[in-house]
Amino acid sequence: MLVKVFVLGRPGSGKTTAIHHLLNLAQQRDYSAFSIDDYSILYRMSRDERYHEQFRRTAYDGFDVLDLSVFDTALQNLEQQVQAMSAHASNGIITIEFARNDYAQALSQFSADFLKDAYIFFVDADLETCIERIYQRVASPRTQSGHFVSDYIMHTYYSYDNWSYVSTQLMSVYHIYKMAQTFRNTGSVSHLLAQVERFAEHIFLNEFKQLASADQLKQLAHA
Asked: How far apart are CA 149 and CA 64, in angstroms?
């Protein structure tokens, strides 16, 4: 069983840092650890497009989305990929990363069964901080996931970030019964990592301790 963990927030908010730490924590405990994001899907769509009506290429091998409907298409594709991966994976986690300015619209692209047993980690930071971090990561890339997002998209599409909706209404609207954790990432990296560790511990205790106990009971029954 793969536990789904949605990691949400603006580009530059700290999602990728949170994901890397979460995956490392899972691997340290010998759980499977996978990650998927919609950027690779959108990137491929932007390169396959012939007439540049839905995308516009930018600096640093990036792109701007001109037709917002492609965001929904990418998420529908993403669910299919996660379902395929989950069918053949052992116990562990899969992080699902994407950024939107309206998470009510974004999450409506997923099926109810896909959402109900998911965890959510929402990372927030103010717009100018996110833009500064984006330029820092393309100037000194530490991973291959440091994608460039243009000032145009940040100041238009991502100028609004519905933190209040995610923190107060999202779980009840989509009948998500696990956990939604929100964190304002405006301090040090160590503060973010500490929050991820607390979040990860909750997942491990809630999901895998029960599985371990069940396995022990099965072993005793066959002894």
From this structure: 8
pLDDT attached to residue 215: 47
Distances 127 to 11, 76, 99, 200 between C-alpha atoms, Å = 9, 27, 13, 27
Residues near 57 by beta carbon (within 8 Å), at least 6 away in sequence: 46, 63, 64
Task: Give the pLDDT of residue 144.
Answer: 60
Question: What are the CA-CA distances from residue 116 to residues 26, 27, 157, 176, 178 (Å)?
Answer: 22, 25, 28, 4, 8
- Whether the model pTM is above 0.90: no
CA distance 106 to 110: 8
Q: Specify whether the CB–CB gap between 100 and 9 falls below 8 A.
A: no
> Whole-number mean pLDDT of the chain?
88
